[in-house]
Design brief:
- By secondary structure, this protein is an alpha/beta fold.
- Among the domains are: 231-415, no CATH class; 488-723 and 735-785, Rossmann fold (3-Layer(aba) Sandwich), CATH 3.40.50.
- Helix content is 54%, strand content 11%.
- The protein contains 26 helices and 15 strands.
- It has an eight-stranded mixed sheet with strand order 8-15-14-9-13-10-12-11, sandwiched between helices.
- Helix 5 crosses helix 6 (131-138), helix 7 (165-226) packs antiparallel against helix 13 (354-423) and helix 12 runs antiparallel to helix 13 (354-423).
- The longest helix has 70 residues, at 354-423.
Length: 786
């Protein structure tokens, strides 16, 4: 709930804080951030749009006007229904796709040349330097489509653009004339050319057919001369011979096996008889034959019978026939048997071994079959050679027959086409009619709204780019909302620009003119400081925030002025408050309250931390403002950071906390030295003061990060709009956080101090002036004030 505090000159509305450690979100979604940037930089965006539109208007005024004339022609296809739909000559392809061909014809170089010739004879207001290019660049041809069905009709849309309206109309009329002339001439020319081409093709095909017929006769003659068999008959014969060959091979194999059995048979008569019985069982031929020769008479009879058979076969088959040779071998075998028996005995009553006699028979059959096999294999090889030749000749014959049939069909087709062209030779097939004559050209370009819209859009893009670039390069805060959003803390006060005042009241002669709350307590500036005081009360109630640190990102942000005026405002509210100058490098409290003029600035908090004086001997009561006590810096130390980190400093704050209601510490800038970061861990809350300057945002964000890094309790931000040089500080802040003084040298932000202080440091305690109070009197007055 908001609290309202009324003062005589103004009314301040204080909103409940979110809490010292409750950061405000730094950023929302990317889209909202971009819109926020564009809205904040809307001037650049508007400027970009206006500049783009102005440039577009200027560009529009520099463009020459363009006029367009339009016309429509209907193209008729009067092709005879008897004419074949396909066309041989590729130059007649436009007849196949009727309208596509006509559209291409109108765009062709021939039509452009004809139109250019007609235009040279016409009167143009602005004659071109090159007529063919003039026609080619200005002419546009398209097919008319039905708006409902989208189907392409037989109507062509013609348009022509020129910088003069009457020239556009004239040029389009000449394009139609050139197209019409070309169409009339091409119909007759194409028909004659097609007839000649067809006639030439027909003669070529007939000549080719004669050659094929002659080759076909030659192939057939070769077939008849090669073999008495046809290709199919010879294939069957080869198949049968192969079958006979396989049977003979098997039979020869069986004979070989039988001979080996007889050769390996034992000499025992019984066993040989058993083998003969087995052979008779396996060979059906033996069942009907008797191979037992019991005496010489039987042998002689067998020889006589074989000689008769030999004589018959010799006469019928010849001496070299296998069967003749087989019979001859049997006769010789029998004669050899008789010869062998005659050596041993004169008794011709003997018997011939049937197994031996069967072997003679088998050997004869084996020899006969081997001779047959040779003859069959020889015939098969010869037939295969003939078969290969017949196969090649047969394939060639069939190929020639197919070619002959194809040529017959092509010749018939060509003859039909020649007849068709001859019939329709004098009748035109394509005709064009002008259904919408060329009109006076109308202005189609440039269009002002088109140029302005495009230029405005480009200007919008440029403006947005400029706005984004300006936002990225801008390092300042634009509004209090941005300070809250980026620093994640509340703003507890706004201090206007302070003008140093001179007061006639001698009471404030020694006080700095910027202590406005004491000199002009009812001014608007004083009310602003009281507003900070009220926000501080509201923020720290019931939280034990008694010791408050005042610091800033950079020098010149008005931290000492804020600390002094805030201390005066708190004292004016009736609270016991002490202002401690913890800026050991560039103290200001003693100058603001005129302690140096009263010779009261020699002793301070440094003297206490160095054990040179007691605490209450260094505390001084402000004579001009009741309830305000001051603890100046005193002599400048050589080791300020070590003093602030010492246990004595913590003990000092504990003692002061017991005797004062509010303790305000004035500390150096955060980005200059490490002192304020050290102090921030020992206080109850920190107030950060800053000015809205051109490059102030990075410094403020860095200061906020430093306080968050040490866990400091940031109570809020006081926006101080005082000028950067008005405080008399010599601090200088750059991109490295440099921290220099006009009357004292310091190092960079790395805390390396190269120059000694001008004020010498001594171990002797400073002598007390007559106006300073003793320790006991200070304690007594504090108790009385309490």
């Amino acid at each position: 709930m908001a609290a309202v505090v009324e003062y005589p000159s103004q009314k301040i509305v204080l909103h409940p804080p979110e809490g010292p450690h409750t950061p405000t979100p730094h950023a929302s979604s990317g889209g909202s951030d971009l819109m926020r940037v564009l809205w904040r930089r809307k001037t650049l965006v508007i400027f970009g749009i206006i500049a783009g539109m102005v440039a577009g208007f200027i560009f529009y005024t520099q463009k020459r006007p363009v006029y367009e004339s339009s016309a429509r022609i209907m193209v008729f296809n009067r092709k005879s229904a008897a004419q074949d739909s396909s066309v041989i000559d590729s130059r007649q392809n436009f007849i196949i796709d009727f309208m596509a061909g006509q559209e291409a014809l109108v765009r062709s170089t021939e039509i452009q040349r004809r139109a250019a010739d007609h235009l040279q004879k016409s009167t143009l207001i602005e004659p071109p330097a090159e007529y063919v290019s003039y026609v080619a660049n200005g002419l546009t041809v398209s097919r008319y489509r039905d708006t409902t069905t989208g189907a392409v009709s037989n109507i062509l849309n013609l348009s022509f653009r020129s910088h003069n309206p009457s020239d556009a109309q004239t040029a389009l009329a000449q394009v139609y004339e050139g197209y019409n002339e070309s169409l009339k001439e091409s119909i007759t020319g194409l028909t004659d050319q097609a007839y000649k081409e067809l006639k030439r093709n027909l003669d070529n095909q007939k000549e080719r057919k004669k050659t094929i017929d002659s080759e076909l006769i030659n192939r057939r003659t070769k077939l008849s001369e090669t073999s008495t068999y046809t290709f199919e008959q010879l294939s069957q014969k080869i198949g049968l011979d192969l079958e006979r060959e396989r049977n003979l091979v098997l039979k020869i194999s069986d004979y070989d096996y039988t001979i080996r059995q007889i050769e390996n048979s034992p000499k025992d008569t019984t066993q040989r008889a058993q083998l003969m019985a087995q052979l008779k069982k396996d060979d059906p031929y033996l069942k009907d034959k008797a191979f037992e020769l019991k005496n010489a008479q039987n042998v002689e009879e067998s020889i006589l019978a074989l000689q008769l058979t030999l004589s018959e076969k010799l006469t019928a088959m010849g001496k070299e026939h296998p069967e003749v040779q087989a019979v001859d071998r049997r006769i010789k075998a029998l004669k050899q048997i008789i010869h062998d028996r005659n050596k041993d005995t004169d008794n011709l009553n003997f018997s011939v071994d049937p197994l031996s006699w069967y072997r003679v028979y088998v050997e004869g059959e084996l020899a006969k079959d081997k001779e047959k096999l040779k003859i069959i294999q020889k015939e098969i090889n010869a037939d295969k050679l003939v078969h290969s030749v017949l196969s090649k000749l047969t394939i060639e014959e069939k190929s020639l027959m197919l070619t002959q049939e194809q040529l017959d069909r092509e010749i018939k087709t060509l003859e039909n086409r020649i007849d068709t062209i001859s019939v329709n030779r004098d009748s035109p097939t394509t005709e064009a009619k002008l259904i919408t004559p060329p009109e006076m050209g109308v202005k189609v370009a440039p269009l002002p709204m088109q140029y302005l819209a495009i230029a405005g859009f480009l200007g919008l893009i440029a403006g947005c780019a400029l706005a984004y670039l300006a936002e990225m390069t801008d390092r300042s805060f634009k509004s209090p909302d941005e300070i809250r959003r980026r620093l994640g803390t509340q703003i507890i006060g706004h201090i206007p620009v302070l003008r140093p005042l001179e007061e006639d009241n001698p009471k404030f002669d020694m006080i700095d003119g910027k202590l406005i709350t004491a000199i002009k307590s009812k001014s608007v500036e004083s009310e602003a400081y009281r507003g900070v005081r009220t926000s501080l009360y509201f923020n720290t109630r019931e939280k034990g925030h008694q010791i408050i640190q005042i610091t800033s990102p950079n020098a010149g942000d008005g931290k000492s002025t804020l600390a002094a005026n805030l201390a005066v405002s708190v004292a004016q509210s009736g609270k016991k408050v002490i202002l401690i100058d913890c800026d050991f490098r560039k103290p200001r409290v003693h100058k603001i309250f005129g302690l140096d003029q009263k010779s009261k600035s020699e002793v301070g908090i440094v003297s206490v931390l160095l054990d040179q004086v007691e605490l209450y001997s260094a505390i001084q009561e402000c004579e001009e403002i009741p309830g305000l006590w001051l603890l100046p810096c005193g002599p400048r130390p050589e080791n300020p950071s070590e003093l602030l980190t010492s246990p004595k400093f913590t003990e000092l704050l504990r003692k002061i906390r017991d005797d004062f209601e509010i303790v305000i510490l004035d500390t150096p800038p955060l980005l200059a030295v490490s002192d304020p970061s050290i102090v921030s861990t020992r206080v109850d809350g920190v107030i950060l003061t800053m000015t809205i300057s051109k490059n102030g945002r990075p410094a403020a964000e860095r200061a906020r990060e430093m306080l968050a890094g040490v866990g400091a309790n940031l109570l809020g931000v006081v926006v101080n709009n005082s000028s950067r040089g008005g405080n008399g500080y010599g601090y200088g802040y750059g991109y490295g956080y440099g921290y220099g003084y006009r009357d004292g040298g310091y190092g960079t932000y790395g805390y390396a101090y190269s120059e000694p202080y001008r004020e010498a440091y001594t171990d002797d305690a400073p002598a007390e002036s007559d106006n300073s109070s003793s320790s006991s009197s200070i304690r007594r007055r504090l108790r009385q004030k309490g």
